[in-house]
Amino acid sequence: MSLDRRDFLGMTCSCLGLLAASGLSAESLSEGEEKSMADMTLQHLTQGYWSADSLLLSAAKHLKKSEDYVQLAVGFGGGIQQKDLCGFLTGGVMAIGLFAGATRGNDKPARQKCHKLTKEYMAWWKERHALKCKDIGQPCDYKSMAKEASDFLQSMFGEKS
Q1: Is position 122 within any domain?
Q2: Rounded distance, CA 159 to CA 142, Å?
Q3: Which DSSP state fits 79?
Q4: Could you read off the pLDDT of 42-75 as tens digits, one per residue?
Q5: What domain range includes position 40?
Q6: Quick check: is 29 in a domain?
Q7: Sign of CA dihedral 79, 84, 89, 92
Q8: Residue 149 in 3-state DSSP?
Q9: pTM of the prediction?
């Protein structure tokens, strides 16, 4: 069975309509104040991004990396379009990879850092949420999940810099 994007959104926890209906918007900041990753992720969700790409885009901005990386995460939204692994989980793992910076296969320290932080993120995630979209209660609490994942990653990046 093939679903178009609108039908798919209605069936998964990637329900952008729920976000719009809830009046979700980014908080205004004082001049010179930097947005948190959570604020950025919530804002991206209102702009049509899904879980994985919104989280990766926020991480790229926070880490001052190229925002072009967001295109890598687009297919991971909606549980890889199959209600499988949650996009906040997969997007977070991609963000950790961006943070760790392993650009070569023989960069063992960066690869080890990425693997260690990925295990830490996975353990943290499993304590709070199901791994798969289909196992997350419907409608999913997208707003809280976005904030939790963003806050955890931002804290991780600050501690491990």
Answers
A1: yes
A2: 26
A3: I
A4: 999 999 999 999 999 999 999 999 999 999 999 9
A5: 5-24+34-159
A6: no
A7: negative
A8: helix
A9: 0.80
